[in-house]
Recover the amino acids of this structure.
């Protein structure tokens, strides 16, 4: 079983919908939680990161971390066709030296105009 | 200027051949990383380097080697390629500052097919 599980989708929703993307994990040592967005044939780019539990909001995006349940979420409000991409969750324990990220499988999201 | 560059963009390689994937960053980041991305498995860490002159093994290091002679370059070598190494390879870098989080920046990737 992978340390980080993410539903690969694909997920297809109409423009303007609220999108919920989720990951579960098994390693209680994870302290840093990230969401990356990856467009087709491009490298991943950081969307948001959260340290420990709680919520973080950035425009139309909200990241939530529930360490007690080992569950993280990314919400996208008022989704746009430009949000169509693969979304990857990533996590790491306390950082000592290089930050060794553990990624979920990625969820492919399509926003239909 | 460019952030992270990777070369080649794509490559088809015969099994058993040696191949070096190149990665260069111009951000003066201490830490660099190599990941492979496979369908259904996400990105997995192959090797990493805390700083020039040091390297470490990630989750899937077998069949790969790296070197870090200077801050900017972090080549990944497949000594004798096998079909299971067909994948998309991403190089990444991050500033390293003690125990705090620093964003990892990713290159555009190299698509490698081993036949």
């Amino acid at each position: 079983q992978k340390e980080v599980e993410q539903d690969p989708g694909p997920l297809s929703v109409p423009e303007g919908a609220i999108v919920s993307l989720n990951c579960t994990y098994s390693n209680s040592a994870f302290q840093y939680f990230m969401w990356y967005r990856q467009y087709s044939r491009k490298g991943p780019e950081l969307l948001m990161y959260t340290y420990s539990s709680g919520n973080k909001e950035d425009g139309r995006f909200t990241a939530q971390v529930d360490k007690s349940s080992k569950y993280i979420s990314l919400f996208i409000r008022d989704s746009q066709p430009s949000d169509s991409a693969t979304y990857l969750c990533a996590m790491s324990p306390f950082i000592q030296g290089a930050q060794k990220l553990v990624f979920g499988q990625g969820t492919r999201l399509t926003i239909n105009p | 200027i460019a952030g992270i560059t990777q070369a080649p963009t794509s490559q088809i390689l015969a099994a058993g051949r040696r191949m070096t994937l190149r990665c260069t960053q111009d951000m003066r980041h201490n830490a660099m990383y190599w990941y492979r991305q496979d369908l259904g498995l996400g990105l997995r860490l192959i090797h990493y380097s805390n700083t020039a002159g040091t390297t470490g093994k990630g989750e899937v290091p077998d069949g790969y080697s790296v070197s870090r002679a200077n801050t900017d370059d972090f080549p990944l070598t497949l000594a004798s390629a096998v079909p299971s190494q067909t994948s998309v390879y991403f190089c990444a870098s991050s500033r390293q500052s003690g125990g705090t989080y620093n964003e990892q920046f990713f290159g555009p990737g190299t698509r490698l097919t081993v036949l």
Notes: Chain A has no helices and eleven strands.
